Structures are given as C-alpha cells and as structure tokens.
TrEMBL record:
Residues 644-663 are annotated as: Disordered. The chain crosses the membrane at residues 14-35, 678-696. SUPFAM superfamilies: Class I glutamine amidotransferase-like. This is Glutamine amidotransferase domain-containing protein. InterPro entries: Class_I_gatase-like.
Length: 701
C-alpha cells in the first residue's frame, strides 16, 4: 500500500451550465469598467474569479494504491531438436536457475509454459507463447524469456507484444551440422527397371563448404554400397526395382567431425515396384461354350496386353479347300514359342489339345520357360484325358497332375457337383475369402453347380478347390522359379452366365492369374511390415496350420525384441507396436524378412539441428530483446536478470553472456481516494466578501 497525490479535480456546487452563465454575466459586468479604466476593476475581476472558483469547488485528491507485480513469461522448448545431446538437461537446469533468480526480484511473477513436440509442423513456440499471453494483461508484462535451440517454425511477421523477448540457447555459437536431403524420390517404379533418386549432402554452418562425403546405400537390408558424393551439390542415384511391392532404400551420409548430431545424416525412401503392362499369351483349342470367358477376363484388365490365338483348323484336317480361299492365318509357332516366349508373363492354354501343332521341342521350351520363372495356366476339358493331352508331352513334366484314366474308366467325370474350397484353400490367397465360399469342409459353398471335371493323379502342388468326393479341381504349384495352375474343368463359364446362382468366376480367375504373375498381395507365404501413424503394423500370411510364430523386430538403433503375432482369419496373423525411431525397421519370422521405413516424425524439426538464433532475430530486434548462450557446461551460464524502466535498454554487456532486462511497468490498482476541498465555504465566503468590500472602497475614493 502507498499514498500518492494524483492531482486536483472539481466538484461543482452548481450545474456547470449555470456557472458558465454566471461567468458570462461577470464578464459583461466587467467590460464597461475596463473600458472606462475605472479604479477597482482588477479587484472586481478578482472577486468574480474567486466566486466562480468557489462555486467550482476544487479538491486535492490523494489515492491509496496497491502495486500489482509484473509478469514475466518463461517459454521452455521441449521439441525433438531441443532434446539432442545435452540440450534437454541444460535447458532444464536453466529453467530452474531462471525461476530461482526471478523469485528474488521484487514485484515480479514468473509464469512458465512448455512447448511440446509439434507433430509434423515443426516447433510452434510462438503459437504457445501467444496462447499464454492471452491470460496476461499487457500493462503487467515484463518480458518473455525463451529457452530454445532457435529452431522455431512459426515466427510471425510482427511481434506479438512490445515487451522485450529474450532467447537463451544451449551450446555456443558456431555449431555445424551435416544433413542428407532427399531432393526428389519417385513413389513408384517399374519392375525390371531403375529409378533415380536425387539427394544432396549439405554442411550447415560451414563457410564455403566443399569436398566429398561417403554415402551408404542399402536396399531391403542387403549389404550396402558406398558412393562418394559432392558436398553442397545434388547427386543422382540409380536404384534397381527387382520385384513388386515396397522396396525400402536407406541412405546414410558419413558423419562430419564436430557436428551437432547424426540424426539428419540418414534418410529412408520407400519405392513401390509395379509391373508394366503384363503380356499374356492365350491359346484356345477346341471351340466350346466357355471359350470367351478367358478372353473377356484378360481384355477387361487395363494392365494386361493380350495376344490371343484360337486353333480353328488343325494341320491334319484336309477338306480340299484351296489355300487362297482360307480366311485364316498360319499359327506363328516358332515366333511365339521360341523367339518371343520369354516376353510373355503368362501363357494360358484353354482346352488345347496337341494335334501336332506344337512339336516336342517347342513344348520343351514352354517347360523350360516355366522352370526359369514363367507362368502357365491350363484350363482343361475332355481333351486332357485323351491321347492328345498335353500331359503326354514334355510339358507334362511341369504339370502337378496327370489324367487318371484306367482300364474301363474314363478320366472325364460327368455329373453335377458344387465346387468348394479345401481347408488349404481357405488359407490360400487365391481362394481365401471368395464370396459365397464354404466356411469349412463340412459345409457346401453357395455356388452354382458344374457338370464335368477331370479325374487326375495329383503329383504335386496344392489343391485349393475340389469337386465331387474331394477330387482336386484347382491345383496350384511352383516349379523351379515359375508357377503353374491347373483348372480341371471347363465349366467355369456357367458361373459367368449365372447358372444355378453363379459364382465368383471373375475374381477367382483374376486372383489365379495374378498369383501366377507374382502379385505381392497374393503370396501365400508372406510377411509385410509398414508404418502407420507412428505404429509398426506387422501382417503375416501362411497356408500352414498351427499357431502363428514369434517374430523378431529390429529397431533402427539395432535393438531387438520378440513379439508373438495374434492369429486372425484365413491364415492371417498380425501385431502392432509403437515405432517412434526414424529409420528402417526389420521384422523376421525366421524364414522371411520384411522392412518398413519410418520417416522422421517432424521433418522440419530435423532439417537443421544447430542451435541458432537466426529465425528469432527479427523478433528480438523488434522488441529490444537479446540472444544469450548457455554454454556447453552442465551448469548453464545464465545471464543476469535486471529490471528496467519503460523505454530503457533491455540488454547490455557482452553480446553472448551479458545481462537481459525485464520491464518495470509500475502497474497498480486504486484501493481508496481521499479528497480535500481547496475552497471550503468557511474560507471562500470571507475571501469573496473581503475582496468585494475592498473593491467597493477602492472605487468609492
């Protein structure tokens, strides 16, 4: 509490308009006397003035004031870059020191606000500051002290306040940092081709940086290759895409001596391999009702280039028609099955019988094509059980079954049946989850009936669908590096016509074709990993029954942990766990290994890891604040806190360690007012009467 003289005010006895009217009358009464230069005119004017002053009732006002303490705001940066190395403990020690020193200053209240990690938007220090200022009257704000590394990404164009803004930075000036910047990286690449990455290695804080740096390039966990790249210039890297699905590329630049951190020396790029337009060769044999099923399916796929031949006239047929009258073209056997065979991703035989069209050498070429990584799909009918069956040719060596014809028994089974999914098929990606499929082997599928199938002796492969009495209907097999599918019925076209309720023929054939062409999503034994919203999502698919295994998870820093997957439907198993570290995560189940790329959670935050007041310089200059360095010792070198008056300098001393000032505003609240009249009636009346008598006597002489 303190008493203070605030000034003089008036409490008029009469309304102001009446006092003004009296003043006008007084002037009118004085004018003739002044013009005549009458004696006593001055005393008369003094009398009128004293009377008007008494009517105005002047008072001397004294206030009782309560001083309100000023408020200083301490802003503490808790972002990722402020936790690098020893910055976090140094900032925490500086916070405790500032709070202790501010507590010793009279009439000063210190409020602390912490700035959390800002997601992917960088450090939002000024946003948090403005929220805190909303509760502080500007008349009481002494200043703002920010404990930060200077990597602030929301500095406004104009200062949020006129109070001094000071920045205290961990470390010392002149820090350097090497960063690896990905200039351009494609998200997709064509399988079998190369994509180009553009990267740059930059040395921040180094004048005229030059020279070269070693860059390590690792693809899908393979041994790294090392290239020498120029510092400060873009460099192009060729990455081969060898398979479909994600390819994880990890880049790491060698550390620079004395740099702040190696956190931004690494970068991870994920490139999804996609196949170019797939080339499919479809060879149709004997015309039948479902001949166009395959053609419609493959032509409807925009990613497929289809080459289709239908054998309408076998070579042995001779009806004496002149050759110049035939509207047919010769079947280009040599071109298709020797010269250009390996240009096709898939070969489909639809009810094709070998009637001397393909010599054994070409059939052997097809078998070698499959073993070398090609794909073969055969949809067979009665011809498969006859003497012209492809099973009796060199191609039979790669087929998973042979016709089961015996003495007195045909390989062709006639009779209605409903196709169903086997227990293995319920876990296989080609047939798992098909609409209308039987949930287990004890129940029938909700599909239309077929009326013909082939009896076979299964020699290999996996039966994912069966016919009557459990006979295999769809066999899938791996031969060498290639794949084979054998559909033992030519009645799938009934589903496309909606017969007896129809069935998912388009989805089944599409899956079978894409499994043959190694679509990553249709691998029956697969392990995938990906990062979603800071979580590592692990998915495993297997056709093997039994509990899912444990997987070994390797974090980017090399630490490992084991996690048992949770079983799901259809051979699936999954797990999720936090993935906070940026870099490449590796997941292994003992047979397969998957990789997932975790980019930096806050890319702007790690773009420059130096402690630098440059971003805050406009704000410091606009408010008269200063940047001070805390040094590198465990005990920070705190600047002296001083109180300064409004308009005075708020900084001084050494540019790095000098004192910083907090404004003394002197804000207060009035708790009481005492008024003392300067012209009380007992004083005003004798004065007015005395002057009036004196003036009358003076004028009467």
């Amino acid at each position: 509490m303190q008493q203070a003289l605030s000034g003089i005010d008036f409490a008029p006895v009469l309304p102001l308009w009446l006092i003004a009217a009296l003043a006008v009358l007084a002037v009118l009464a004085l004018v003739p006397a002044v013009l005549r230069r009458a004696r006593g005119a001055a005393l008369r004017a003094l009398t009128f003035a004293l009377l008007l002053l008494a009517l105005a009732n002047p008072r001397l006002v004294e206030e009782t004031r309560e001083t309100r303490p000023d408020i200083a705001l301490l802003v503490v940066d808790r972002s990722d870059s402020a936790r690098i190395g020893s910055r976090a403990p140094q900032i925490e020690a500086a916070r405790a020191g500032i709070e202790a020193r501010a507590g010793k200053l009279p009439d000063l209240e210190l409020r602390t606000v912490e700035v959390p990690e800002g997601g992917n938007q960088g450090t939002r220090l000024l946003t948090a500051t403005e929220r805190a200022l909303a509760d502080i009257p500007r008349a009481r704000l002494a200043g703002i002290i920010a404990l930060t590394d200077g990597q602030v990404h929301d500095v406004p164009a104009t200062a949020p306040t006129e109070a001094p803004f000071h920045a205290l930075l961990p470390g010392r000036p002149g820090e350097t940092d090497r960063r690896l910047r990905v200039v351009e990286a494609p998200g997709f690449g064509i399988v079998g081709r190369e994509v180009e990455l553009r990267v740059a290695v930059e040395d921040l804080g180094v004048p005229n940086a030059a020279g070269a740096a070693r860059l390590s390039i690792r693809r899908d966990g393979a041994p790294p290759r090392v290239e020498s790249v120029p510092v400060g210039r873009e460099h192009r890297i060729a990455i081969p895409i060898e398979r479909g699905g994600p390819t994880v590329v990890e880049l790491a630049a060698e550390a620079r001596p004395g740099e702040v951190s190696e956190l931004n020396n690494r970068a991870v790029v994920t490139i999804t391999g996609v196949r170019d337009r797939l080339r499919v060769l479809l060879v149709s044999g004997e015309p039948h009702a479902g001949e166009r099923t395959w053609r419609r399916l493959l032509k409807a796929d925009p990613g497929v280039d289809l080459v289709h031949f239908t054998i309408l006239r076998p070579p042995e047929k001779d009806d004496l028609t002149p050759l110049n009258e035939l509207a047919l073209i010769a079947f280009p056997v040599r071109e298709l099955f020797q010269v250009k065979l390996r240009e096709f991703d898939l070969v489909v035989f639809d009810r094709f019988a070998n009637r001397g069209i393909l010599p054994p050498a070409y059939l052997r070429n097809i078998a070698d094509y499959v073993r070398g990584g090609g794909a073969l799909l055969m949809s067979v009918g009665p011809e498969f059980g006859g003497p012209t069956s492809l099973a009796n040719t060199p191609l039979g060596a790669v087929l998973p079954a042979r016709p089961a014809a015996g003495p007195g028994q045909s390989a062709v089974a006639e009779g209605a049946f409903r196709p169903s999914v086997t227990a293995l098929g319920a876990r296989h990606p080609v047939t798992e989850g098909l609409s209308g499929a039987n949930p287990d082997e004890r129940q029938a599928a909700r599909w239309g009936r077929w009326y013909r199938s082939l009896r076979v002796d299964q020699r290999g492969g996996a039966a994912v669908m069966d016919a009557a009495d459990g006979a295999p209907l769809l066999l899938l097999d791996r031969v060498g590096e290639g794949r084979v599918a054998l559909l033992l019925s030519d009645h799938i076209w009934l589903w496309s016509r909606g017969h007896d309720g129809g069935g998912p023929q388009a989805e089944l054939l599409r899956r079978a074709a894409h499994w043959l062409m190694r679509e990553p999503e249709l691998e029956e034994e697969d392990l995938t990993a990906r990062i979603e919203a800071g979580q590592l999502s692990i998915q495993r698919r297997s056709v093997e029954a039994g509990p899912p295994p444990e997987v070994t998870i390797t974090a980017p820093d090399g630490s490992t942990q084991r996690r048992r997957l949770e079983a799901g439907q259809g051979g699936h198993a999954a797990a999720r766990l936090p993935a906070e570290q940026p870099g490449v995560w590796q997941v292994s189940d003992g047979r397969r290994t998957a990789f997932a790329a975790a980019a930096a959670a806050n890319p702007p935050e790690v773009a420059d890891l130096r402690a630098d007041p440059g971003r805050l310089s406009p704000l410091l200059a606009a408010t008269g604040g200063a940047a001070r360095w805390l040094g590198v010792a465990a005990e920070p070198a705190l600047p002296e806190l001083r109180r300064v008056g409004p308009g005075r300098d708020a900084r001084g001393g050494d540019p790095q360690t000098g004192w910083i000032g907090l404004r003394r505003n002197g804000d207060h609240t009035v708790t009481g007012i005492a008024a003392m009249p300067l012209m009380p009636p007992w004083l005003a009346l004798p004065l007015v009467l005395g002057l009036a008598v004196f003036a009358w006597r003076r004028e009467g002489r």
